[in-house]
Specification:
By secondary structure, the chain is α/β, with parallel strands linked by helices. 34% of the residues lie in helices and 17% in strands. The protein is built from 12 helices and 17 strands. It has a 7-stranded mixed beta sheet, with helices on both faces. The radius of gyration is 22 Å and the shape is globular. The N and C termini lie far apart (50 Å).
Length: 442
């Protein structure tokens, strides 16, 4: 399929830089959605649809994966390769060439920015094409997509197995109860779990306790607790070999991990997660008519195993050896919202630990920051480091490595400094809306 590549150039006040932009979900780019912002900041910029027919970048989380099949049992490997890597590199090469042709000189610096699938694209470039970019901002990267995506269906698998479909209100109330229980562990009550690893409670701890839906008092059920715990523990709790991590306890569960809805007579059912279900349908079963609601547990874990075997090489983006990117002088920043409701942050942490194991001095060129209370790419109660790209430029061009990422939340006038891993935010007293009230510590 023909690739569509967009290259936007500022007619005046070009800042001498090129910036390639990533996509998300099952799309390689969002087109004008982010090009507008990049060009407004003076960047020559590029985005690609990669030949993948997904809403032409208008969908914020494209989940259509029907393009991955040529026919039943036949994966469209050519298009999958475009999605995995080729389209991103082609966009960059063409974008840089057009920039050079128009301005009659090459860009002084080249950057990449993306979140989710776009974050995966950024790490892909550092791993596979290490000499292309001077700086990469890879946010909440969809690393090991062949593992965490199908594994994300685990809580739904449990729902189908025990035939229990909790109401969206009960699901949200479990999350609220968990946040209330763990909020104070960081020393300040602000609705944010700053140290998710210290929040060791189980969903079963809330069974029998009260919550309210639409003014009606209810109690948490043991059956729903099993579903919630499946989302929190992940399928890795059953099989470390084939499973994957769960999400943190402050992540919203209703969109992807425990998607339910209720009819007018209060009969609740699974509303399905296309993000996870479509992977199982098109890339695991390789059958557009496959029903994810009828899988046995054995079939589910067999599917996780085959997904990893079939697609790790082309889509895993999990190579921890970044020595070539380092040798070329590249710099990279990754941050991940700890309340991410789509991609488990523990997967990113595990990858960064592998990078450090491979190169204990990787901190010199690649830094990872946890963003407590932030959802997938944005959202949530936590402050967001909207200036991360500016800090990356400062690192690349002036050698000033970011000791912290400055983050803000306008709705409640809060500022926090995100800490470089493995450090975490620690409250030291004062107004919790001020960054100076926190320090970074182990």
């Amino acid at each position: 399929m023909t690739q569509s590549i967009l290259v936007w150039l500022p007619l005046r006040e070009w800042n001498g830089r090129f910036q390639a932009l990533g996509g998300g979900g099952y799309a390689t780019g969002f087109g004008e959605t982010y090009l507008t912002y990049a060009v407004a900041r003076g960047f020559a910029s590029a985005s690609t649809y990669g030949g993948v027919p997904v809403a032409n970048g208008k969908d914020t989380m494209p989940t259509d994966l029907s393009w991955a099949l040529s026919s039943k049992n036949n994966v469209n490997w050519s298009l999958l390769e475009d999605y995995a890597s080729k389209a991103t590199n082609d966009m960059t090469v063409i974008g840089q060439q057009i920039t050079k042709s128009y301005y009659e000189k090459p860009a002084n610096y080249s950057y990449f920015a993306g979140c989710s699938g776009g974050g995966r694209q950024g790490l892909l470039m550092a791993q596979k094409y290490p000499d292309v970019f001077d700086g990469i901002l890879a946010v909440a990267p969809a690393l090991n997509i062949q593992r965490f995506i199908p594994a994300g269906f685990w809580a739904s698998q449990v729902m189908h197995k025990i035939r229990v479909y909790p109401s969206p209100c009960e699901v949200a109330s479990f999350v609220k109860a968990a946040v209330e229980a763990c909020d104070r562990l960081d020393g300040v009550e602000d609705g944010i779990i700053s140290s998710p690893d210290r929040c060791q409670l189980n969903a079963s701890d809330f069974v029998g306790k009260s919550y309210t839906c639409n003014g009606i008092p209810k109690t948490f059920s043991a059956s729903t607790a099993k579903v919630i715990q499946a989302a929190w523990s992940g399928s890795r709790s059953v099989s470390k070999r084939d499973g994957w991590y769960g999400v943190n306890k402050d992540a919203a569960l209703g969109t992807a991990y425990v998607p339910t809805a209720c009819s007018a007579n209060n009969t609740c059912y699974s509303s399905g997660s296309d993000l996870f279900g479509n992977w199982l349908k098109y890339l695991v079963a390789k059958d557009s008519s496959f029903s994810t609601g009828n899988m046995t547990q054995e079939e589910f874990f067999d599917g996780l195993r085959s997904s990893n075997v079939d697609y790790s090489g082309i889509l895993g983006t999990n190579e921890p050896d970044l020595s070539n990117f380092k040798a070329k002088g590249g710099k990279m920043i990754t941050w991940h919202g700890m309340a991410d409701e789509a991609i488990p942050p523990l997967g990113t942490i595990a990858y960064y630990e592998e990078v450090l194991k491979n190169d204990p001095k990787a901190h010199d060129f690649y830094r990872f920051f946890e963003a407590p209370g932030v959802g997938h790419c944005y959202g949530g109660l936590g402050p967001i480091p909207n200036g991360a790209m500016s800090q990356l430029l400062e690192w690349v061009e002036n050698g000033h490595a970011p000791a912290v990422l400055h983050a803000t939340k306008g709705s409640n006038n809060t500022a926090r400094d995100l800490c470089p891993y493995p450090l975490q935010q620690k409250y030291i007293g004062g107004d919790p809306r001020n960054a100076t009230s926190f320090t970074c510590a182990k």
